[in-house]
Automatic annotation (TrEMBL):
It comes from the Eukaryota. It holds the Pfam family Ribosomal_S27e. GO terms for molecular function: structural constituent of ribosome. GO terms for cellular component: ribonucleoprotein complex; ribosome. Belongs to the eukaryotic ribosomal protein eS27 family. It comes from Meleagris gallopavo. This is Metallopanstimulin 1. InterPro entries: Ribosomal_eS27, Ribosomal_eS27_Zn-bd_dom_sf, Ribosomal_zn-bd. Its cofactor is Zn(2+). Keywords: Ribonucleoprotein, Ribosomal protein, Zinc.
Length: 51
C-alpha cells in the first residue's frame, strides 16, 4: 500500500524517493506565499514584510 511505502526507508522503496518536500507558507501579515523546504534548518523570513 502507498502508506507502507511511505514508512519504508527512502532507499528501500519500490521507487526511491526522499522523505522531504516543499511546502507553500502564507504569511499572516501580508498574505504573500513563500515556498519552504520541509527539512530546512534555517528560519525563512517573509519577503514582503520581513516577519
Amino acid at each position: 500500500s502507498p502508506e507502507e511505502e511511505k514508512r519504508k526507508h527512502k532507499k528501500k522503496r519500490l521507487v526511491q524517493s526522499p522523505n522531504s518536500y516543499f511546502m507553500d507558507v502564507k504569511c499572516p501579515g501580508c498574505y504573500k506565499i513563500t515556498t519552504v523546504f520541509s527539512h530546512a534548518q534555517t528560519v525563512v523570513l517573509c519577503v514582503g514584510c520581513s516577519t
